[in-house]
What does this fold into?
Amino acid sequence: MGAIVQRIVLCYTLIMERPSLYLETTIISYLGGRISRDVVVLAHQELTLQWWHQQRGNFDMYTSEIVFNEAQHGDKEAAGKRVALLAGIPVLAYTPDVERLARRYYEELSFPEKALADSFHLAFAIHYSLDYLLTWNCRHLANEILQRRLVKLNESLQLATPLIVTPEELIALSEEEP
It folds into this structure.
């Protein structure tokens, strides 16, 4: 979607009420992880922290059991931080409709096997008609090629597609507000 459409959606949702947002695992991982030595990852961590401290209150945030499960993997100390960050964020119900939708996305969008959880992140955000899916997963979620295919598929299913964005994009959108 173009920047103009994103801006219109953002302005509309801000007028109506707080926009809804699905918080995907990479956001929690960047917030709860050790400071990276990789310059790109470090920049993503800083932008995520900036968004978390300055803008998260502008959204009704939701997550899923998938995120909780992914957050619990790895180093116990880091996993504990990630789970603590998720405390208080409403968890969307895992339903047969969410599962069917996730399977359809997995098959029709040609996700690799290791990215099955990503199809579920999409399914949760779309099934519950959320405005945004916030992620740093630019390979399987926040990339324009996938998003174009997703929009086309969702149009055929008569489903709305949330804006799939990174914290950097949400920060930029908020800076563009009149």
Summary: Strands lie at 20-23, 60-62, 132-134, 163-165. The longest strand covers residues 20-23.
